[in-house]
Protein backbone atom coordinates (compact mmCIF):
# COMPACT_ATOMS: atom_id res chain seq x y z
CA UNK A 1 0.00 0.00 0.00
CA UNK A 2 1.39 3.40 -0.86
CA UNK A 3 1.36 6.66 1.10
CA UNK A 4 -1.79 8.11 -0.48
CA UNK A 5 -3.96 5.14 0.43
CA UNK A 6 -2.29 4.75 3.84
CA UNK A 7 -3.35 8.26 4.83
CA UNK A 8 -6.91 9.56 4.80
CA UNK A 9 -7.99 11.14 1.54
CA UNK A 10 -8.86 14.80 1.54
CA UNK A 11 -12.39 15.99 0.87
CA UNK A 12 -11.14 17.18 -2.53
CA UNK A 13 -9.72 13.77 -3.41
CA UNK A 14 -13.01 12.11 -2.45
CA UNK A 15 -14.90 14.62 -4.60
CA UNK A 16 -12.62 13.79 -7.55
CA UNK A 17 -13.23 10.08 -7.02
CA UNK A 18 -17.00 10.71 -6.99
CA UNK A 19 -16.68 12.69 -10.25
CA UNK A 20 -14.67 9.85 -11.80
CA UNK A 21 -17.31 7.35 -10.65
CA UNK A 22 -19.99 9.51 -12.30
CA UNK A 23 -18.07 9.46 -15.61
CA UNK A 24 -17.31 13.20 -15.54
CA UNK A 25 -13.48 13.03 -15.74
CA UNK A 26 -10.79 12.52 -18.33
CA UNK A 27 -7.06 12.17 -17.81
CA UNK A 28 -4.76 14.00 -20.21
CA UNK A 29 -1.58 11.97 -20.52
CA UNK A 30 -0.24 14.63 -22.88
CA UNK A 31 -0.20 17.07 -19.94
CA UNK A 32 1.27 14.87 -17.24
CA UNK A 33 -1.90 13.13 -16.14
CA UNK A 34 -3.87 16.27 -15.35
CA UNK A 35 -7.62 15.90 -14.93
CA UNK A 36 -10.40 17.47 -16.95
CA UNK A 37 -13.70 17.51 -15.05
CA UNK A 38 -16.88 18.43 -16.89
CA UNK A 39 -14.75 19.74 -19.77
CA UNK A 40 -12.71 22.11 -17.55
CA UNK A 41 -9.09 21.66 -16.46
CA UNK A 42 -8.97 20.82 -12.75
CA UNK A 43 -6.83 23.43 -11.01
CA UNK A 44 -5.17 20.91 -8.69
CA UNK A 45 -2.65 19.69 -11.25
CA UNK A 46 -1.28 17.16 -8.76
CA UNK A 47 -4.59 15.34 -8.09
CA UNK A 48 -4.63 13.21 -11.24
CA UNK A 49 -1.06 11.96 -10.94
CA UNK A 50 -1.43 11.48 -7.16
CA UNK A 51 -4.65 9.42 -7.44
CA UNK A 52 -3.25 7.46 -10.39
CA UNK A 53 -0.02 6.69 -8.54
CA UNK A 54 -2.08 5.63 -5.51
CA UNK A 55 -3.84 3.11 -7.75
CA UNK A 56 -7.27 4.70 -7.30
CA UNK A 57 -7.93 5.85 -10.88
CA UNK A 58 -6.72 4.77 -14.31
CA UNK A 59 -7.00 5.80 -17.96
CA UNK A 60 -5.84 4.37 -21.25
CA UNK A 61 -2.26 4.72 -22.44
CA UNK A 62 -3.05 7.95 -24.30
CA UNK A 63 -5.37 9.36 -21.67
CA UNK A 64 -9.11 9.43 -22.04
CA UNK A 65 -11.92 8.74 -19.62
CA UNK A 66 -10.78 8.24 -16.04
CA UNK A 67 -12.03 5.11 -14.33
CA UNK A 68 -11.99 3.99 -10.73
CA UNK A 69 -9.91 0.97 -9.85
CA UNK A 70 -11.21 -1.63 -7.42
CA UNK A 71 -9.31 0.19 -4.66
CA UNK A 72 -10.89 3.51 -5.63
CA UNK A 73 -14.38 1.97 -5.54
CA UNK A 74 -13.68 0.38 -2.17
CA UNK A 75 -12.57 3.72 -0.70
CA UNK A 76 -15.71 5.46 -1.94
CA UNK A 77 -17.96 2.70 -0.61
CA UNK A 78 -16.25 2.83 2.79
CA UNK A 79 -16.79 6.57 3.14
Mean pLDDT: 86
The radius of gyration computed from the alpha-carbon positions, rounded to a whole number of angstroms, is: 11 Å
Tell me the major beta sheet: 5 strands, antiparallel
Q: Stretches where pLDDT falls below 50 for ≥5 residues?
A: 1-5
The total of helices stands at 4
Task: State the name of the first-level CATH class.
Answer: Mainly Alpha
Helix residue percentage: 25-40%
- Beta-strand residue percentage: 25-35%
Q: Oligomerization state of this entry?
A: single chain
Name given to the CATH architecture: Orthogonal Bundle
Describe what is shown at a glance:
This protein has 79 residues and is α+β, with helices and mostly antiparallel strands.
What does this structure look like?
It is a single chain. With 79 residues, the chain is an alpha+beta fold. It has one domain: Orthogonal Bundle (Arc Repressor Mutant, subunit A). Helices cover 39% and strands 25% of the residues. The chain has 4 helices and 5 strands. The protein has a 5-stranded antiparallel β-sheet with strand order 3-2-1-5-4. A hairpin with a 5-residue loop joins strand 1 and strand 2. The protein is globular and about 30 Å long. The two termini are 18 Å apart.
Secondary structure blueprint with pairings:
Layout (H helix, E strand, L loop, with lengths): L2 H4 L4 H11 L3 E4 L5 E4 L2 E2 L5 H7 L3 E4 L2 E6 L1 H9 L1
Antiparallel strand pairs: 1-2, 1-5, 2-3, 4-5
What are the defining features of this structure?
79 residues; globular; 39% helix; five-stranded antiparallel β-sheet; Arc Repressor Mutant, subunit A; alpha+beta; single chain
Amino acid sequence: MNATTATPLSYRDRAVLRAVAAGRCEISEAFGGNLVIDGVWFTDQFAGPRLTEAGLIIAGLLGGPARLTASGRALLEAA
